[in-house]
Amino acid sequence: MVSLIFRLISPEAIDKSLLFLYNSLIKLAPPVGDWKGIYMNQFYCEETLRLLPLWEEQTTYGESGMFIGEEDKFPLLFQPHKILSVTSSDLTQIYREGVDFKVTEDGYIQRLPGSHIPFISKEEYYADDPEWILVTKRDGKDVHTYWGEGDTMYQWQICVNYTHGTPKDASIPADHSSRYERVLTKLQNGENITVLFLGDSITAGANSTYQSNRAPYMYPWTLLSVHELARRYGYRVHHVDTKLEKVAKVPAEDAVYGNRGTITYINTAVGGWRITNGMSRYEERVSQWIQDYGCDLFVLAFGMNDKTVTAEEEVRDFRTILDQVIAESPNTALLTVATMLPNPLANERWNALQYTFEPAMLPMAEDYWSRGIPCSVVPMTTMSRWILERKRFCDVSGNNINHPNDFLVRLYAQTLLRTLTGYAFR
Fold first, then answer.
1. Which of 149, 203, 253, 281 measures 20 to 30 Å from 219, CA to CA?
2. pLDDT tens across 101-113, in order?
3. Which domains does the chain have, with CATH numbers?
4. Do 268 and 198 touch, CB atoms closer than 8 A?
5. Kind of pairing, strands 375-379 and 333-338?
6. How far is CA 323 from CA 42, 304, 317, 333, 369, in A?
Protein backbone atom coordinates (compact mmCIF):
# COMPACT_ATOMS: atom_id res chain seq x y z
CA MET A 1 0.00 0.00 0.00
CA VAL A 2 2.86 2.37 0.81
CA SER A 3 4.31 1.93 -2.67
CA LEU A 4 0.93 2.76 -4.19
CA ILE A 5 0.45 5.84 -2.07
CA PHE A 6 3.92 7.32 -2.27
CA ARG A 7 4.54 7.57 -6.00
CA LEU A 8 7.92 9.21 -6.17
CA ILE A 9 8.74 12.53 -7.67
CA SER A 10 12.01 11.52 -9.28
CA PRO A 11 13.68 8.13 -9.76
CA GLU A 12 16.85 9.15 -7.95
CA ALA A 13 14.79 10.06 -4.85
CA ILE A 14 13.51 6.50 -4.30
CA ASP A 15 15.71 5.52 -1.37
CA LYS A 16 15.45 8.90 0.34
CA SER A 17 11.71 9.20 -0.09
CA LEU A 18 11.00 5.72 1.20
CA LEU A 19 13.17 6.44 4.20
CA PHE A 20 11.27 9.64 4.91
CA LEU A 21 7.93 7.84 4.61
CA TYR A 22 9.15 5.02 6.84
CA ASN A 23 10.36 7.49 9.44
CA SER A 24 7.02 9.30 9.28
CA LEU A 25 5.03 6.15 9.88
CA ILE A 26 7.08 4.73 12.73
CA LYS A 27 6.76 8.02 14.59
CA LEU A 28 3.00 7.55 14.75
CA ALA A 29 2.82 5.74 18.04
CA PRO A 30 0.14 5.76 19.19
CA PRO A 31 -1.76 6.40 15.92
CA VAL A 32 -3.04 9.94 15.57
CA GLY A 33 -5.65 11.65 13.49
CA ASP A 34 -7.44 10.40 10.42
CA TRP A 35 -5.31 7.73 8.72
CA LYS A 36 -6.98 8.41 5.41
CA GLY A 37 -5.94 12.03 5.79
CA ILE A 38 -2.38 11.01 6.67
CA TYR A 39 -2.12 8.88 3.59
CA MET A 40 -3.70 11.60 1.50
CA ASN A 41 -0.79 13.87 2.32
CA GLN A 42 1.56 11.58 0.45
CA PHE A 43 -0.71 11.89 -2.55
CA TYR A 44 0.37 15.45 -3.20
CA CYS A 45 3.59 13.97 -4.53
CA GLU A 46 1.74 11.50 -6.75
CA GLU A 47 2.03 12.35 -10.42
CA THR A 48 -1.67 12.32 -11.26
CA LEU A 49 -2.61 14.60 -8.36
CA ARG A 50 0.15 17.17 -8.04
CA LEU A 51 -0.93 18.82 -11.29
CA LEU A 52 -4.68 18.93 -10.71
CA PRO A 53 -5.57 22.55 -11.50
CA LEU A 54 -6.14 24.65 -8.40
CA TRP A 55 -8.83 26.68 -10.12
CA GLU A 56 -11.31 23.83 -10.57
CA GLU A 57 -10.70 21.15 -7.90
CA GLN A 58 -12.52 20.67 -4.60
CA THR A 59 -9.50 19.13 -2.88
CA THR A 60 -6.25 21.05 -2.55
CA TYR A 61 -3.03 19.10 -1.98
CA GLY A 62 0.12 20.37 -0.33
CA GLU A 63 -0.89 24.01 0.12
CA SER A 64 1.93 25.69 2.00
CA GLY A 65 2.05 28.22 4.81
CA MET A 66 4.19 29.22 7.79
CA PHE A 67 3.93 30.82 11.20
CA ILE A 68 5.64 34.09 12.12
CA GLY A 69 5.19 33.99 15.86
CA GLU A 70 4.16 31.22 18.26
CA GLU A 71 0.42 31.66 17.79
CA ASP A 72 0.39 33.06 14.27
CA LYS A 73 -2.09 31.94 11.63
CA PHE A 74 -2.01 31.81 7.85
CA PRO A 75 -4.84 31.80 5.30
CA LEU A 76 -5.82 28.94 3.04
CA LEU A 77 -6.78 29.65 -0.57
CA PHE A 78 -10.29 28.32 0.00
CA GLN A 79 -12.63 28.00 2.97
CA PRO A 80 -11.89 24.47 4.19
CA HIS A 81 -14.58 21.84 4.65
CA LYS A 82 -12.31 19.15 6.07
CA ILE A 83 -8.61 19.03 6.86
CA LEU A 84 -7.20 15.78 5.50
CA SER A 85 -3.68 16.18 6.84
CA VAL A 86 -1.05 18.71 7.86
CA THR A 87 2.65 17.85 7.65
CA SER A 88 6.07 19.40 7.57
CA SER A 89 7.21 20.51 4.12
CA ASP A 90 9.44 17.45 3.76
CA LEU A 91 6.52 15.16 4.75
CA THR A 92 8.40 13.61 7.68
CA GLN A 93 6.22 15.02 10.47
CA ILE A 94 2.45 14.77 10.80
CA TYR A 95 0.65 17.36 12.91
CA ARG A 96 -2.66 16.94 14.72
CA GLU A 97 -5.67 19.17 14.65
CA GLY A 98 -6.61 20.32 18.15
CA VAL A 99 -3.10 19.57 19.41
CA ASP A 100 -0.75 21.33 17.02
CA PHE A 101 -3.15 23.58 15.13
CA LYS A 102 -6.76 24.61 14.77
CA VAL A 103 -8.86 25.89 11.90
CA THR A 104 -10.38 29.29 12.59
CA GLU A 105 -13.87 30.28 11.54
CA ASP A 106 -12.47 32.43 8.74
CA GLY A 107 -10.51 29.50 7.28
CA TYR A 108 -7.04 30.13 8.68
CA ILE A 109 -4.64 27.54 10.07
CA GLN A 110 -3.56 28.72 13.52
CA ARG A 111 -0.71 27.34 15.56
CA LEU A 112 -1.63 26.28 19.10
CA PRO A 113 0.45 26.79 22.26
CA GLY A 114 2.81 23.89 22.81
CA SER A 115 2.52 22.81 19.18
CA HIS A 116 5.18 20.67 17.54
CA ILE A 117 4.96 22.82 14.40
CA PRO A 118 8.04 25.02 13.96
CA PHE A 119 7.67 28.78 13.89
CA ILE A 120 9.99 31.70 13.31
CA SER A 121 9.74 34.48 15.85
CA LYS A 122 8.83 37.97 14.75
CA GLU A 123 12.12 39.13 16.24
CA GLU A 124 14.05 36.81 13.94
CA TYR A 125 11.87 37.40 10.87
CA TYR A 126 12.21 41.16 11.23
CA ALA A 127 15.71 41.17 12.74
CA ASP A 128 16.67 44.14 10.55
CA ASP A 129 20.07 42.65 9.83
CA PRO A 130 21.73 45.18 7.51
CA GLU A 131 23.38 42.34 5.59
CA TRP A 132 19.98 40.99 4.52
CA ILE A 133 19.19 42.03 0.97
CA LEU A 134 15.41 41.93 1.39
CA VAL A 135 13.82 45.14 2.66
CA THR A 136 10.06 45.20 3.26
CA LYS A 137 7.54 47.52 4.82
CA ARG A 138 6.51 46.90 8.44
CA ASP A 139 4.26 49.37 10.19
CA GLY A 140 5.05 51.86 7.45
CA LYS A 141 8.81 51.57 7.93
CA ASP A 142 11.52 49.90 5.83
CA VAL A 143 13.04 46.92 7.62
CA HIS A 144 15.56 44.27 6.57
CA THR A 145 13.58 41.04 6.46
CA TYR A 146 14.24 37.30 6.63
CA TRP A 147 15.09 35.60 3.35
CA GLY A 148 17.39 32.91 1.98
CA GLU A 149 17.95 30.08 -0.47
CA GLY A 150 17.99 26.30 0.06
CA ASP A 151 15.74 25.27 2.95
CA THR A 152 15.60 28.73 4.54
CA MET A 153 11.84 28.99 3.99
CA TYR A 154 10.96 25.30 3.77
CA GLN A 155 12.15 24.67 7.34
CA TRP A 156 9.23 26.79 8.57
CA GLN A 157 6.62 25.91 5.99
CA ILE A 158 4.03 23.18 6.38
CA CYS A 159 1.74 21.44 3.89
CA VAL A 160 -2.04 21.25 4.18
CA ASN A 161 -4.38 18.87 2.32
CA TYR A 162 -8.05 19.76 2.60
CA THR A 163 -11.42 19.65 0.89
CA HIS A 164 -13.45 22.73 0.06
CA GLY A 165 -16.21 23.97 -2.20
CA THR A 166 -15.93 24.72 -5.88
CA PRO A 167 -13.37 27.54 -6.30
CA LYS A 168 -15.03 30.91 -6.88
CA ASP A 169 -13.44 33.96 -8.47
CA ALA A 170 -10.46 31.84 -9.51
CA SER A 171 -8.18 32.94 -12.30
CA ILE A 172 -8.46 30.41 -15.12
CA PRO A 173 -5.75 30.39 -17.79
CA ALA A 174 -6.91 30.48 -21.39
CA ASP A 175 -6.88 27.26 -23.39
CA HIS A 176 -4.69 27.86 -26.45
CA SER A 177 -4.29 24.23 -27.44
CA SER A 178 -5.66 24.97 -30.93
CA ARG A 179 -2.49 26.95 -31.59
CA TYR A 180 -0.31 23.95 -30.81
CA GLU A 181 -2.00 21.42 -33.04
CA ARG A 182 1.26 20.49 -34.74
CA VAL A 183 3.01 19.67 -31.45
CA LEU A 184 0.02 17.87 -29.96
CA THR A 185 -0.57 15.86 -33.16
CA LYS A 186 3.02 14.67 -33.02
CA LEU A 187 2.46 13.49 -29.46
CA GLN A 188 -0.78 11.77 -30.42
CA ASN A 189 0.99 10.02 -33.29
CA GLY A 190 3.99 8.88 -31.26
CA GLU A 191 6.50 11.14 -33.02
CA ASN A 192 9.55 12.41 -31.17
CA ILE A 193 9.63 16.06 -30.11
CA THR A 194 12.16 18.43 -28.54
CA VAL A 195 11.30 21.09 -25.95
CA LEU A 196 13.85 23.83 -25.28
CA PHE A 197 13.66 26.26 -22.33
CA LEU A 198 15.49 29.56 -21.86
CA GLY A 199 15.01 31.87 -18.91
CA ASP A 200 16.16 33.00 -15.49
CA SER A 201 16.47 31.33 -12.07
CA ILE A 202 12.76 30.48 -11.89
CA THR A 203 13.12 28.59 -15.18
CA ALA A 204 16.29 26.98 -13.87
CA GLY A 205 14.27 25.63 -10.95
CA ALA A 206 15.74 27.68 -8.13
CA ASN A 207 14.27 26.69 -4.75
CA SER A 208 12.38 23.68 -6.02
CA THR A 209 13.17 20.93 -3.54
CA TYR A 210 14.66 18.81 -6.34
CA GLN A 211 17.23 21.48 -7.09
CA SER A 212 17.75 22.06 -3.35
CA ASN A 213 18.25 18.31 -2.78
CA ARG A 214 15.73 18.04 0.02
CA ALA A 215 12.52 16.06 0.42
CA PRO A 216 10.06 15.81 -1.21
CA TYR A 217 12.34 16.41 -4.25
CA MET A 218 9.69 18.19 -6.31
CA TYR A 219 10.84 18.83 -9.86
CA PRO A 220 10.92 22.43 -11.14
CA TRP A 221 8.02 23.47 -13.35
CA THR A 222 9.94 22.81 -16.55
CA LEU A 223 10.52 19.15 -15.70
CA LEU A 224 7.05 18.76 -14.19
CA SER A 225 5.45 19.98 -17.40
CA VAL A 226 7.47 17.81 -19.76
CA HIS A 227 7.11 14.73 -17.56
CA GLU A 228 3.36 15.22 -17.45
CA LEU A 229 3.24 15.35 -21.24
CA ALA A 230 5.25 12.13 -21.32
CA ARG A 231 2.98 10.47 -18.77
CA ARG A 232 -0.11 11.59 -20.61
CA TYR A 233 1.04 10.34 -24.02
CA GLY A 234 3.07 7.30 -22.95
CA TYR A 235 6.51 8.70 -23.82
CA ARG A 236 9.96 8.61 -22.37
CA VAL A 237 11.82 11.81 -21.44
CA HIS A 238 15.45 12.16 -22.46
CA HIS A 239 17.19 14.81 -20.35
CA VAL A 240 20.05 16.55 -22.12
CA ASP A 241 22.93 17.49 -19.85
CA THR A 242 24.13 20.60 -21.67
CA LYS A 243 27.24 20.92 -19.48
CA LEU A 244 26.88 24.67 -19.84
CA GLU A 245 27.98 27.00 -17.09
CA LYS A 246 25.45 27.62 -14.29
CA VAL A 247 22.65 25.44 -15.67
CA ALA A 248 20.38 23.43 -13.39
CA LYS A 249 20.92 19.74 -12.81
CA VAL A 250 18.83 17.23 -14.71
CA PRO A 251 18.04 13.58 -13.97
CA ALA A 252 20.85 11.31 -15.09
CA GLU A 253 18.54 8.69 -16.58
CA ASP A 254 15.65 8.83 -19.00
CA ALA A 255 12.21 8.81 -17.39
CA VAL A 256 10.06 6.12 -18.98
CA TYR A 257 6.27 6.47 -18.99
CA GLY A 258 5.87 4.41 -22.16
CA ASN A 259 7.60 3.67 -25.43
CA ARG A 260 5.44 5.54 -27.93
CA GLY A 261 8.14 8.16 -28.47
CA THR A 262 10.71 10.42 -26.84
CA ILE A 263 10.49 13.99 -25.59
CA THR A 264 13.95 15.53 -25.52
CA TYR A 265 14.22 18.03 -22.67
CA ILE A 266 16.78 20.86 -22.86
CA ASN A 267 16.98 23.70 -20.34
CA THR A 268 19.70 26.35 -20.68
CA ALA A 269 18.27 28.85 -18.16
CA VAL A 270 20.62 30.70 -15.81
CA GLY A 271 19.87 32.24 -12.43
CA GLY A 272 20.18 36.01 -12.32
CA TRP A 273 19.88 36.48 -16.05
CA ARG A 274 17.93 39.25 -17.69
CA ILE A 275 16.44 38.85 -21.13
CA THR A 276 19.36 40.82 -22.57
CA ASN A 277 21.64 37.99 -21.36
CA GLY A 278 19.55 35.56 -23.37
CA MET A 279 19.91 37.79 -26.42
CA SER A 280 23.68 38.13 -26.15
CA ARG A 281 24.19 34.41 -25.52
CA TYR A 282 21.67 33.18 -28.09
CA GLU A 283 24.15 31.13 -30.11
CA GLU A 284 25.36 29.24 -27.05
CA ARG A 285 22.04 28.85 -25.25
CA VAL A 286 19.60 28.34 -28.13
CA SER A 287 21.04 28.06 -31.62
CA GLN A 288 23.46 25.20 -31.06
CA TRP A 289 20.73 23.09 -29.45
CA ILE A 290 18.30 23.71 -32.29
CA GLN A 291 21.03 22.64 -34.69
CA ASP A 292 21.81 19.48 -32.72
CA TYR A 293 18.32 18.38 -31.67
CA GLY A 294 15.78 20.44 -33.59
CA CYS A 295 13.06 22.25 -31.66
CA ASP A 296 9.31 21.63 -31.69
CA LEU A 297 8.46 23.87 -28.75
CA PHE A 298 10.53 26.81 -27.54
CA VAL A 299 9.65 28.20 -24.09
CA LEU A 300 10.95 31.67 -23.23
CA ALA A 301 10.55 32.83 -19.62
CA PHE A 302 12.15 36.06 -18.44
CA GLY A 303 10.98 39.11 -16.52
CA MET A 304 11.74 38.79 -12.82
CA ASN A 305 15.19 40.35 -13.13
CA ASP A 306 14.08 42.92 -15.72
CA LYS A 307 12.34 44.92 -13.02
CA THR A 308 13.59 48.32 -14.21
CA VAL A 309 12.83 47.72 -17.89
CA THR A 310 9.73 49.16 -19.51
CA ALA A 311 7.14 46.79 -20.90
CA GLU A 312 7.86 48.03 -24.43
CA GLU A 313 11.56 47.23 -24.03
CA GLU A 314 10.82 43.81 -22.57
CA VAL A 315 8.50 42.87 -25.44
CA ARG A 316 11.02 44.16 -27.97
CA ASP A 317 13.68 41.87 -26.49
CA PHE A 318 11.29 38.91 -26.35
CA ARG A 319 10.61 39.46 -30.03
CA THR A 320 14.32 39.58 -30.83
CA ILE A 321 14.85 36.09 -29.44
CA LEU A 322 11.61 34.66 -30.80
CA ASP A 323 12.31 36.02 -34.28
CA GLN A 324 15.74 34.39 -34.25
CA VAL A 325 14.20 31.05 -33.32
CA ILE A 326 11.62 31.25 -36.12
CA ALA A 327 14.24 32.31 -38.66
CA GLU A 328 16.35 29.32 -37.70
CA SER A 329 13.52 26.81 -37.21
CA PRO A 330 10.32 27.98 -38.96
CA ASN A 331 8.15 25.11 -37.68
CA THR A 332 8.93 25.72 -34.01
CA ALA A 333 5.97 26.61 -31.79
CA LEU A 334 6.57 29.45 -29.32
CA LEU A 335 5.43 29.65 -25.71
CA THR A 336 6.26 32.66 -23.55
CA VAL A 337 5.93 32.83 -19.77
CA ALA A 338 5.01 36.04 -17.99
CA THR A 339 6.84 36.09 -14.67
CA MET A 340 5.21 35.56 -11.31
CA LEU A 341 5.11 38.61 -9.07
CA PRO A 342 7.89 39.18 -6.51
CA ASN A 343 7.27 39.81 -2.82
CA PRO A 344 4.70 42.66 -2.89
CA LEU A 345 6.10 44.06 0.36
CA ALA A 346 9.66 44.28 -1.02
CA ASN A 347 11.19 47.61 -1.96
CA GLU A 348 12.01 48.68 -5.48
CA ARG A 349 15.25 46.68 -5.51
CA TRP A 350 13.09 43.60 -6.12
CA ASN A 351 9.57 44.82 -6.83
CA ALA A 352 9.15 47.34 -9.63
CA LEU A 353 7.84 46.93 -13.19
CA GLN A 354 7.39 43.17 -13.46
CA TYR A 355 3.60 43.48 -13.26
CA THR A 356 3.54 45.51 -16.50
CA PHE A 357 5.04 42.83 -18.76
CA GLU A 358 2.16 40.37 -19.11
CA PRO A 359 -0.37 42.88 -20.54
CA ALA A 360 2.21 43.89 -23.15
CA MET A 361 3.13 40.30 -23.98
CA LEU A 362 -0.46 39.30 -24.82
CA PRO A 363 -0.74 41.39 -28.01
CA MET A 364 2.75 40.25 -28.98
CA ALA A 365 1.57 36.63 -28.90
CA GLU A 366 -1.56 37.53 -30.86
CA ASP A 367 0.57 39.17 -33.52
CA TYR A 368 2.64 36.02 -34.00
CA TRP A 369 -0.48 33.87 -34.12
CA SER A 370 -2.11 36.18 -36.68
CA ARG A 371 0.85 35.41 -38.92
CA GLY A 372 0.43 31.67 -38.50
CA ILE A 373 3.16 31.26 -35.86
CA PRO A 374 1.94 29.38 -32.77
CA CYS A 375 2.53 31.63 -29.77
CA SER A 376 0.83 32.21 -26.40
CA VAL A 377 1.53 33.63 -22.97
CA VAL A 378 1.54 31.50 -19.82
CA PRO A 379 -0.05 34.09 -17.49
CA MET A 380 1.88 33.57 -14.28
CA THR A 381 1.63 37.25 -13.40
CA THR A 382 -2.15 36.90 -13.27
CA MET A 383 -2.03 33.51 -11.54
CA SER A 384 0.42 34.63 -8.85
CA ARG A 385 -1.62 37.78 -8.25
CA TRP A 386 -4.67 35.57 -7.65
CA ILE A 387 -2.69 33.57 -5.08
CA LEU A 388 -1.28 36.67 -3.38
CA GLU A 389 -4.71 38.21 -3.03
CA ARG A 390 -5.39 35.33 -0.64
CA LYS A 391 -2.03 34.32 0.81
CA ARG A 392 1.14 35.94 2.09
CA PHE A 393 4.23 35.77 -0.08
CA CYS A 394 6.24 33.97 2.61
CA ASP A 395 3.67 31.14 2.50
CA VAL A 396 4.36 30.29 -1.16
CA SER A 397 7.93 31.40 -1.79
CA GLY A 398 11.19 29.47 -1.74
CA ASN A 399 13.34 32.48 -0.83
CA ASN A 400 10.85 35.19 0.29
CA ILE A 401 11.98 37.52 -2.50
CA ASN A 402 11.22 36.25 -5.99
CA HIS A 403 11.27 32.44 -6.23
CA PRO A 404 8.35 30.01 -5.99
CA ASN A 405 8.30 27.15 -3.51
CA ASP A 406 7.05 23.69 -4.49
CA PHE A 407 3.40 24.72 -4.19
CA LEU A 408 3.81 27.65 -6.57
CA VAL A 409 6.09 25.58 -8.83
CA ARG A 410 3.17 23.22 -9.32
CA LEU A 411 0.94 26.16 -10.27
CA TYR A 412 3.51 27.17 -12.88
CA ALA A 413 3.28 23.71 -14.43
CA GLN A 414 -0.52 23.58 -14.17
CA THR A 415 -0.80 26.93 -15.92
CA LEU A 416 1.63 26.03 -18.69
CA LEU A 417 -0.13 22.74 -19.36
CA ARG A 418 -3.53 24.41 -19.46
CA THR A 419 -2.26 26.99 -21.94
CA LEU A 420 -0.54 24.42 -24.13
CA THR A 421 -2.90 21.46 -24.04
CA GLY A 422 -6.18 22.62 -22.51
CA TYR A 423 -6.94 19.29 -20.89
CA ALA A 424 -7.46 18.42 -17.26
CA PHE A 425 -4.91 16.14 -15.60
CA ARG A 426 -6.47 13.14 -13.95
1. 281
2. 999 999 999 999 9
3. 2-119+156-164 (no CATH), 177-421 (3.40.50.1110)
4. yes
5. parallel
6. 44, 22, 10, 12, 13
